[in-house]
């Protein structure tokens, strides 16, 4: 089973601010949906709080240390490893070969050494933020695809869709 990150990061590595995205990018939301549809998605509790609901066509696994946390329509795991085991079972049922890791910064940092693929939306901004995506070591990652879609009418910035594979 492959582990794939799906993340949008500004040029300065910022991925979030005050529990939300520091930009509005309709083009990236469509890209996210295309990548994750039909697959289990794993996220931390803060990311769940910002999304606020399970996403249609995906099985959502929320990782939290809070033993009393409940999220209607989502599966709850109390460790990252438990979350990955639950996601693997969901992937088998969904006939998916990839588990999608969608945030936030703590989950990305904890799983970076285990990820196989990174789908990075590079956002042409440098906002302030409190959630940062870790820098990728070029000795461990190789860019395998790059697409620069046209900026949509509901996009606050230009983006590039980059795909990295572990070397």
List the strand order in the largest sheet: 5-4-3-6-1-7-10-9
Count the DSSP helices. 4
Number of domains: 1
First-to-last CA distance: 17 Å
The CATH topology label is Dihydrofolate Reductase, subunit A
What is the architecture at the second tier of CATH? Answer: 3-Layer(aba) Sandwich
CATH 4th-level superfamily: Dihydrofolate Reductase, subunit A
The main β sheet shows up as: 8 strands, mixed
Q: Please mark out the parts with pLDDT under 50 across 5 or more consecutive residues, or reply none.
A: none
Radius of gyration over all CA atoms, rounded = 15 Å
Which key phrases capture this entry?
single chain, 167 residues, alpha/beta, Dihydrofolate Reductase, subunit A, eight-stranded mixed sheet, two-stranded antiparallel ribbon, 24% helix
